Automatic annotation (TrEMBL):
GO terms, molecular function: transferase activity
Listed InterPro entries: DMAP1-bd, Gtb1-like, Man6P_isomerase_rcpt-bd_dom_sf, MRH_dom, OS9-like_dom
Biased composition (Low complexity): 271-280, 297-306
Gene Ontology cellular-component annotations: extracellular region; Golgi apparatus
Main location group: Golgi
Function: Non-catalytic subunit of the N-acetylglucosamine-1-phosphotransferase complex, an enzyme that catalyzes the formation of mannose 6-phosphate (M6P) markers on high mannose type oligosaccharides in the Golgi apparatus. Binds and presents the high mannose glycans of the acceptor to the catalytic alpha and beta subunits (GNPTAB). Enhances the rate of N-acetylglucosamine-1-phosphate transfer to the oligosaccharides of acid hydrolase acceptors.
Subunit structure: Homodimer; disulfide-linked. Hexamer of two alpha (GNPTAB), two beta (GNPTAB) and two gamma (GNPTG) subunits; disulfide-linked. The alpha and/or the beta subunits of the enzyme constitute the catalytic subunits.
Protein name: N-acetylglucosamine-1-phosphotransferase subunit gamma
Classification via SMART domains: DMAP_binding (SM01137)
Region listing for Disordered, in residue ranges: 265-306
Gene responsible for this protein: GNPTG
Amino acid sequence: MAARLARFLLVLELATYGPGYAGAAKMKVVEEPNTFGLNNPFLPQTSRLQPKREPSPVSGPVHLFRLSGKCFSLVESTYKYEFCPFHNVTQHEQTFRWNAYSGILGIWHEWEIANNTFRGMWMRDGDSCHSRSRQSKVELTCGKSNRLAHVSEPSTCVYALTFETPLVCHPHSLLVYPALPMALQQRWDQVEQDLADELITPQGHEKLLRALFEDAGYLKTPEESESAQQEGGVQGPVFETLESCNKAHKELSKEIKRLRSVLTQHGIPYSSPSETSSSEHLGSKTPTDRTAEQLPGNTGLLGNTL
Ligand SMILES: *[C@@H]1O[C@H](CO)[C@@H](O)[C@H](O)[C@H]1NC(C)=O
Ligand SMILES: *[C@@H]1O[C@H](CO)[C@@H](O)[C@H](O)[C@H]1NC(C)=O
């Protein structure tokens, strides 16, 4: 793989650490001498790129914030790819043709978090691609210098980039917990305690952590996205058939019963809205919501829809 890359790739070194470097906003791209169409004054490459929205605010591990405002590029066969952390991913066709393609492959949106680790940066809402938007996931891996090491397109209009940086070489550098403000760490502690005490289910645990990561700004709430607005702000699952809805309802009712018995076992009082109303008006609320709402330290997470 490395040998293949070495043969193929021309990595553009960027003057990001140059002597004149004063702050995060300044960026200087040094082009290689043979730039094909790129330095052609009759090709206003960048002016053609119309971002659909502003990037999300910079978030995540503080030691990565210094990458904001910089850009790193990679030439692979006839394309030059450019990754600007916390901003965008773009693609520029290297050709003499007057209509060389330039496009936005994603705008900084949110982190991917798995196993309590920052797994990648999602850049979404790029140029249209059939009925969807191009999007890119950038994985950060340990390397001797900052460089865009690899680009591929694992599925149509979804790009996978590998960015190497010394900033993620420490084994704790991408852990989520240490990146959180203390108040959110304490909230996380409580969620773990509640799980250990079986006051919440693994699903409830996952949901509370997701809400916590959203509050930290690492993940974006789906409600904010266009598709949710198009559905008129409908919350909760949408069922395709009455049968599947009934089935889900039955499962939720069973879960409520189980959670009630857990509460009773632990001698925790709960206000019980009349049996019939709670089981007939479940709507988008899940039993874990109901339980979590009555626990200390979890207020404010679940909105005031209950
Ligand atoms: C991409 O990000 C860079 C660096 O922040 C910025 O200078 C450039 O204008 C952005 N490009 C687009 C098309 O938004
Ligand atoms: C999850 O993270 C821990 C510590 O960071 C690591 O030891 C473990 O191997 C990871 N598990 C998976 C499935 O990635």
